[in-house]
Amino acid sequence: xxxxxxxxxxxxxxxxxxxxxxxxxxxxxxxxxxxxxxxxxxxxxxxxxxxxxxxxxxxxxxxxxxxxxxxxxxxxxxxxxxxxxxxxxxxxxxxxxxxxxxxxxxxxxxxxxxxxxxxxxxxxxxxxxxxxxxxxxxxxxxxxxxxxxxxxxxxxxxxxxxxxxxxxxxxxxxxxxxxxxxxxxxxxxxxxxxxxxxxxxxxxxxxxxxxxxxxxxxxxxxxxxxxxxxxxxxxxxxxxxxxxxxxxxxxxxxxxxxxxxxxxxxxxxxxxxxxxxxxxxxxxxxxxxxxxxxxxxxxxxxxxxxxxxxxxxxxxxxxxxxxxxxxxxxxxxxxxxxxxxxxxxxxxxxxxxxxxxxxxxxxxxxxxxxxxxxxxxxxxxxxxxxxxxxxxxxxxx
Length: 397
Known about the structure:
This is Succinate--CoA ligase [ADP-forming] subunit beta. By secondary structure, the chain is of the alpha+beta class. It contains 13 helices and 19 strands.
């Protein structure tokens, strides 16, 4: 689960991290009041979407020369006007894709004097099963670009879970970023606060880009991007309350309400599979036969008829789907349950695209009987390869 910048900064502020004072704006008529509560003399107006690259992004149907999603203002009135210009419009960045995201929230904060821009992130490292620190002197840039062009400017190391954060970790980062004097102590303290926030709130990513050094030598968190481990949200009702469902894919949102593991993709063949590994293999073999999967969908081992029905509805709601492949290897999951769900869903929402079903495992004969006697126009497949070949042929002719 991701949250907006202003929400991330509120969490970090609670942990004592240095952030600018700011106000969130959801309605244009509140922009002037929000800006007036800040001191100035410089205001920063930021579009709030769950994507990076806002400053370099552009609005659809933008006027010639119009600025991106991060703008500077030199008066309360100008800040309010810039906020009104962005609210309700669609911002396109390199992370949103060409469709962009609609801006429903604006964050207005005090401007900051900047001497240096740095990069700092805490991430879950799956290889070491530890929290990793990533830092670079190249703040303000995409870290992927830095990694590709100047990897020597990135320092990355893991923190031993048994000991947790230690002051020497902070000093290592400070020295790598060229800090000296009081800045080293500030970095030791800041990283301690960030590590505590990361672990206590079950984050999976905490990216500060940029972390700035101001002319007076002090550090400040100028931007923050935070993502949380969805499996741990049951422990954090305060974090769940920050969820902005308008930022999520409607299909993925609907799937989450039925405990379905669904991720939308850009292809034309919808997939319904049980088991993450089998789902990945199904996507791979669809590509092998010359097509692209429209989604990753794992209905899980304990899916009910109702869950399968909802999963089928989610797949068919994708206008890009030109065909559907159901691939079930029944172990814990019974093939007859899958068959009943597919039949119920098709009767409820209709079937306008080719459907290939491959069933194998527990109660497979019952499942096939349910499909065969349903009266539906279903193409049967004997195995995974056969199923992939048949759905691709049905879609592409």
